[in-house]
Specification:
Layout (H helix, E strand, L loop, with lengths): L26 H4 L7 H14 L17 H9 L7 H8 L3 H6 L2 H9 L7 E4 L8 E5 L5 E5 L6 E4 H18 L4 H23 L3 H6 L2 E2 H9 L4 H16 L2 H8 E4 L2 E4 L6 E3 H5 L4 H16 L4 H8 L2 E8 L10 E7 L6 E8 L6 H4 L7 H12 L8 E6 L5 E8 L5 E2 L7 H22 L2 H8 L4 H29 L10
Antiparallel strand pairs: 1-4, 2-3, 2-14, 3-5, 6-7, 8-9, 9-10, 10-11, 11-13, 12-13
Helix pairs in contact: 2-19, 7-8, 7-18, 7-20, 8-18, 8-19, 8-20, 10-11
């Protein structure tokens, strides 16, 4: 969206990149692609063990001269909406677990100093356990997958896996699990990944691309050991996700004004377009919003463009989302189709450079919104049909990229705060398998499987790493607490 949040009476017309400039060819798109044999690919993985032994991943200690974590968080916050940064810190201060969710940049810097393999995949970039969840596939079945790709970029496969295992270690501490329980869960994450990547290494290439995990299958697994109470909670969570769609968003987020639905203002979490620009500029706001929709439509395939053309723009608002994303510009836009009972809510979320880029190199895409969308399509077996991207120029002359998706489309996440050790171990299996499937689509499953091997050496190494890094996460969390207590940074809690 436009930079309207920077001035309450800004008079700026958004400029959107023309369709012909929306993509820059990546080096890989122009390259001659090699096709080594399965034996050669397996040999590559085995040879990597000599360069980076699996045991080398076990220990982690802060590098000499490790940067101050609060300084890094402030650096990351610099391009964000200043008034929302205290909200982000407030959410990170809830617990070491919520801090971890917002600390992807810190972990990327730490992983850059650790041993790394040359076995690259498309990385999620922030593969903590709360960035997995449900959504509705185009066939309307509820599927489970990674669901956050703001930081996606190619890189060493183990970076995603280390962040995932560490997130389980941090979550286990948050739930009060003892060391033995956490170790069992940590081992399960990597074992599930390793066994799945071995499975994918033996599959036909096209079959890997069709593989997906439906919620019905997860439910069948869960029923085998869940207590009646756990099963009721699981089913209620699934039903809640299934009910989340644009029609429900219409009822929850809007009210009628002069015969048209309008998004309800709830600052600072929801600020309508009129809150930020002034109601007297209504006509100009509407035209600018329509220009943005037209630019977004140009990034869709022809069939989906025709679909979105059936909807008209009605209203828009800035909305705070997540933990790590707070302060990045995120907008919701209401469109209507046939009538008032035919809504479509879209989310326009700012796509800043990935936190991995300072350590792994810049993106091959000129538009970071497209980087996010292409990474998501590559890692998910099936994706939101509304995925697109735009670029706009605001009052300050800065160009900013956004990716676009449906606001609610049966999106749901696991209730980590209610999990017992057995449920978290089952969830670890599901997340490990899901990450392996995502990596198998973009990386060399045979080489990765060969590197990991059939034994548990890598499992044990990452279980140890996860606890070491959970210790570091607690130290960084304490550093943010101190920074807020001394007034170095401001935090707004309870939002």
């Amino acid at each position: 969206m436009t930079e309207i949040e920077q001035s309450p009476r800004a008079r700026v017309r958004p400029r959107t990149a023309p369709p012909k400039t929306r993509r820059r060819a990546t080096p890989r798109a122009r390259a001659v692609v090699p096709h080594p044999t399965p034996a050669e690919r397996a040999a590559t993985g085995r040879a990597m063990r000599a360069d980076v032994p699996r045991s080398a991943h076990a220990d982690w200690t802060p590098a000499l001269g490790r940067r101050d974590p609060v300084e890094m968080l402030e650096e990351q916050a610099a391009p964000r909406v200043a008034e929302l940064v205290p909200v982000r810190y407030g959410r990170m201060l809830v617990s070491p677990f919520t801090f971890f969710r917002g600390a992807a940049y810190l972990m990327a810097a730490d992983l850059a100093d650790a041993p790394r393999t040359g076995l690259h995949t498309q990385l999620c970039g922030d593969a903590h356990l709360s960035n997995f969840g449900t959504f509705a596939a185009p066939d309307r079945r509820l599927v489970f997958s990674l669901n956050d790709f703001d930081e996606t970029l190619p890189g060493p496969f183990e970076w995603d896996l280390k962040r995932l295992v560490a997130s389980f270690a941090v979550a286990g501490r948050d739930r009060g699990f003892d060391a033995k329980q956490r170790k069992a869960i940590n081992l399960t994450v990597t074992r599930a990944y390793r066994e799945a990547i071995i499975q994918f290494a033996g599959m036909r290439t096209v079959d890997i691309w069709y593989a997906r995990l439906d919620v019905d299958e997860i439910s069948a697994r869960f029923r085998k050991f869940a207590t009646p109470k756990q099963l009721r909670r699981f089913n209620a969570n699934v039903e809640k996700a299934q009910s989340k769609d644009s029609l429900k968003a219409l009822g929850k987020l809007t009210r009628m004004v002069d015969g048209e639905p309008r998004i309800i203002s709830d600052p600072p979490l929801i600020a309508t377009i009129e809150d930020l620009l002034g109601a007297e500029q209504h006509a100009r706001i509407d035209e600018e919003a329509r220009e943005i929709v037209r630019a977004y439509r140009a990034t869709l395939t022809e069939d989906r463009r025709r679909l979105v053309e059936r909807f008209r723009y009605v209203h828009a608002a800035r909305k705070v989302v997540g933990v790590g994303s707070v302060g990045a510009r995120a907008w919701i836009m209401l469109l209507l189709g046939r009538d008032g009972d035919d809504p479509l809510f879209l989310q326009f979320k700012e796509a800043q450079p990935s936190v991995l880029e300072p350590f792994l190199g810049t993106s091959g895409f000129a538009n970071h919104g497209q980087r996010v969308v292409e990474g998501q399509r590559l890692m998910q077996a099936t994706s939101d049909i509304m995925l697109g991207w735009i670029r706009t120029t605001g009052l300050d002359g800065a160009k900013r990229d956004y990716y676009v998706r449906q606001l609610w489309d049966a999106k749901g996440s696991a209730l980590v705060e209610a999990m017992k050790p057995s449920a978290m171990e089952m969830y670890a299996q599901v997340c490990g398998w899901t990450l392996a499937r995502a990596h198998a689509r973009s990386g060399d499953a045979i080489a990765i499987a060969s590197y990991l091997g059939s034994g548990d050496a890598f499992d044990r190494a990452l279980a140890s790493f996860a606890e070491c890094y959970a210790d570091q996460n607690e130290r960084d969390y304490a550093a943010l607490q101190d920074a807020v207590a001394t007034g170095r940074v401001a935090a707004e809690t309870g939002l």
